[in-house]
Amino acid sequence: MADTHRPADDAARALAAGLLEARHGALGTVLAGAPLVTRVGVLRLPGQGMGMLLSDLSDHARALAETPAASILPGEVAGKDDPMTQPRLTLVGHVQTVEKADLRARWLAARPKAQLYFDFADFRIWCLRPDSALLNAGFGRAHRLSPSDLGLG
Amino acid sequence: MADTHRPADDAARALAAGLLEARHGALGTVLAGAPLVTRVGVLRLPGQGMGMLLSDLSDHARALAETPAASILPGEVAGKDDPMTQPRLTLVGHVQTVEKADLRARWLAARPKAQLYFDFADFRIWCLRPDSALLNAGFGRAHRLSPSDLGLG
């Protein structure tokens, strides 16, 4: 089937940049061979990817430890219009853990409520580095974006 | 690792029922072996599962045609509190297509804005029948639920 998606342009990059400022998102992983979608807190780490602070006790962290391929849909629907006419962004890539201590000040400055659990021994920061992204800017307006289009390359 | 999740109880079932009334959700699929999360419109179909009206031209429909295993996180974060302290529900199961014509009146009564595209030839209704569900009712309060706990068995 032909790919009906458009390449990136400045408007698509700007829209994606706004969506990447989300405080949380839906994380897609594979656990025991089956897709799993869970809500996670996220923080954009420029030049690196999307950071997530996850408990090792969670199903999604078990999934990522097993299979590092993952996807994130950041943010949520704004307003009351049909969600299918509103912009959304899907990141597809791979995760790795990053050193939590190095990110502590930055994370808590951006996500102060996370201080309730940031230091728990079972919490680690995972970073999703996108291989590609799909921006749906509204009905029939879909773009494929690269990591550099997202500032996460 | 021990499963730290609690079984279902009436409060968990009631919370899940409310979350299943969502108008949209995050769909997790596997496309070419990689997890993919996308936003989709949903409609609870009692006794059957969660219905989704999807274009065959979309990445998620291609994924489902390839691999019917899927997951849905319905709805979104309500309010301004830390999203990680708010209830959320993950369904894990399998999809099948259902006859669009049979559901037309019901779908459009519940989702009138979908009449813009409901009749497009490339749109089909897929139904996710859950095999299991995970309700996170707030920090440290997680339950495993069955299809019958959800009214989707």
* Assembly state: homodimer
Order of strands across the main sheet of chain A: 1-2-3-6-5-4
The number of distinct helices of chain A, counting runs of at least 4 residues, comes to 4
- Spell out the helices and strands of chain A N to C: HEEEHEEHEEH
Q: N-to-C terminal Cα separation of chain A, in Å?
A: 28 Å
Low-pLDDT runs of chain A:
none
Structural class of chain A: alpha+beta
Coarse shape of chain A: globular
Number of E strands of chain A: 7
Find the biggest chain interface. A-B, 43 and 43 residues
Beta-strand percentage range of chain A: 35-45%
Main sheet attributes: strand count, strand direction, barrel closure of chain A: 6 strands, antiparallel, barrel
Overall radius of gyration of chain A:
16 Å
Helical fraction of chain A equals 10-25%
Nearest-integer average pLDDT of chain A:
91
